[in-house]
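Before the break, one more example. Copy the sequence into your notebook; we will annotate it together after we see the structure.
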Amino acid sequence: MSDHAAHPSGTPHPGPGGQPPPGQATRPAGARVTGGEVFAAVLLLCGGVLAVLQGVAAVAANDVYARIGSYIYEISLTGWGIIHIVLGAFAVVTGLCLLRDMAWARYAGLFLAALVLIAQFLFLPYAPLWSLVIMAIALFVIWALASRQTAVT
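Here is what the structure looks like once it is written out:
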């Protein structure tokens, strides 16, 4: 048989190292994303939507967030709003791709969750309680994506 032949189960022949070709699903056709991946995808979707709303609030009205004194990582609220909107939009897209079981989405989700964690830490003086909640969500996403069990074939 050639290198491009399908396995008897109908799944594509894995690439080098036993991994599927880039951009293809990591499970057989018809399989669904389950467990921790669904948890991470839904949290990423919700966290992304909340980040977009948080960013819109920061851009639209400067009186939504508390005024702080001198802060070493101080950025204007408009700047923080744009950062949250961009991160949130990427998180929503990545969450949707995780639900579709796209191979790259797991790594993008880990990277985005780490960026959200850092951004919320830096935003902590503006909205302490809210930032802590979003940081916890980002940690759950990182945990769920990093602890994914892969099937050995």
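Residues 1-11 have pLDDT under 50 and may be disordered. The chain is about 60% helix and 0% strand. Try to locate both features in your own notes.
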